[in-house]
Write a structure and sequence with these properties.
It is a multi-pass membrane protein. This protein has 18 helices and no strands. By secondary structure, the chain is mainly α. The termini are far apart. About 45% of the residues are buried.
Length: about 425
């Protein structure tokens, strides 16, 4: 075969390999999302609203902590991939990054055992704080393991680990259901069990680490991970961890109403479950379009049209939520979950508005404007916190208004950043260079 034929065959094989990888990762992610969503709905059916309010606060804390630690996967995948280019393995900096994440998780979780905080979040049940501690520290190792695997292009074990996490939770939940031994604490244990799925893949991950290879020291690693973790924490506070934020800043006595509201929030957040894969597609799309003037103009038109369409869709979704929302919540969660139509309308508006907001922050990431991403999420989290603390009204009213207003303001901020700092403009160049 000629050299041209060999190159063409190699290119085709590479394309097939890329499609196989994308299909494997996409399939495992969809299975993981589906299992996770089914698990949250199952817990709604198993618990009365008042107990579910406590459980979903625990869920928000643990999953929010997991979202905060997720940059570990990105950082270790980077280190692992760079080492693989030289035929080596990730070294001590990878272990240091995981250690930093584990310490952050432990300190955060131990704070939940402080009596005033524990009373607000868990009504004095310190057992839930200990479960967050165990699951949070395990999350640091879980994301570290995932990063090592995908960094060395170990697609199959990585995909299996992505699926194993919710599968372990579902398995333990199934055992509890059959044994009729489910309550808030036992369901919390089932949720935390998924954080230990990495133990099934510890041996192959261990072979991807060289503990003798030197690199960045503790100071550099801590500073870099600190910035990444703070940004992720701000994001998770108004998405995954919002029930915990409400419990901490605006606790209320009506647990049944709050539990029903959080059940509605889980249902309304369905559009956000698929935003992660879409965000990963946005970055290369923006990079490609930003290389030419025509591409930049097209990008601006696409972004403007997308924002307008999202606002229209959010308004339509709010109307549907106002009309059908209470029925949908009772149908999915059970007859005991009674929520007002206006509450569902506000939650749907928030969920839809968060979609373009997250996609536009991905545009800033593609332009290497991470500082603006951090500012955007600081505005959103800060606004939500202020509304929860100082807005008159009960817990449900404050939670809905805060979650409707904060992402809307965040969308306005990120749109301003994207338009003002478009590549090719003076301000954009200055920001990128900084």
């Amino acid at each position: 075969m000629s050299s041209a034929g060999v190159e063409e065959a190699g290119a085709k094989a590479g394309a097939r390999s890329g499609r196989t990888t994308a299909g494997s990762l996409g399939g495992s992610l969809l299975v993981s999302i589906g299992l996770g969503y089914v698990l949250t709905v199952a817990c709604q059916r198993l618990l009365p609203p008042q107990e579910y309010a406590v459980f979903v606060t625990f869920w928000g804390l643990l999953m929010g902590l997991g979202s905060t630690l997720s940059p570990l996967e990105q950082e270790l995948s980077r280190q692992s991939a760079v080492a693989a280019l030289d035929g080596g393995r990730a070294g001590r900096p990878a272990l240091r990054a995981v250690a930093v994440g584990a310490v952050v998780a432990a300190v955060f979780s131990l704070a939940l055992l402080i009596p005033p905080i524990n009373d607000r979040l868990f009504r004095g049940d310190w057992t839930l704080g200990l479960i967050v501690l165990a699951g949070g520290v395990a999350f640091a190792f879980q994301f570290g393991t995932r990063g090592l695997l995908i960094g060395q292009h170990k697609v199959k074990p990585f995909s299996l680990l992505v699926i194993a996490e919710p599968a372990v939770r579902a398995l333990v939940l199934g055992v509890l259901f059959v044994a009729v031994a489910y309550n808030v604490v036992s369901l919390a244990i089932a949720v935390a069990a998924g954080s230990f799925a990495w133990l099934l893949f510890a041996r192959p991950a261990r072979r991807l680490i060289d503990p003798h290879a030197e690199g960045d020291g503790w100071g550099v690693t801590s500073r870099r991970m600190g910035m990444l973790l703070v940004g992720a924490a701000l994001t998770s506070a108004v998405i995954t961890g919002y029930p915990a934020l409400v419990g901490l800043l605006a606790p209320g006595d009506d647990g049944a109403r709050v539990g029903a509201l959080f059940a509605a929030l889980v249902i309304a957040r369905l559009p956000l479950t698929l935003i992660g894969p879409v965000q990963s597609l946005v970055v290369p799309f923006v990079v490609r379009l930003s290389t030419t003037d025509e591409g930049r103009n097209r990008l601006q038109r696409v972004l403007a049209l997308g924002v307008v369409a999202s606002l229209a869709l959010a308004a339509l979704g709010a109307l549907v939520g106002l009309w059908l929302g209470p029925w949908a919540v009772r149908f999915v969660s059970g007859p005991g979950y009674d929520v007002d139509g206006w509450s569902v309308a506000g939650l749907v508006w928030s969920s839809v508005v968060l979609v373009p907001m997250q996609l536009l922050t991905a545009v800033l990431v593609a332009r290497t404007q991470a500082r603006l991403v951090l500012i955007t999420w600081t505005v959103v989290t800060g606004t939500a916190s202020l509304f929860l603390l100082f807005l008159p009204g009960d817990t449900v009213f404050r939670a809905v208004v805060a979650l409707a207003v904060a992402p809307t303001l965040g969308l306005a901020v990120v749109v301003a950043f994207v338009l003002r700092n478009a590549p090719g403009t003076t301000s954009g160049a200055a920001e990128t260079s900084s």
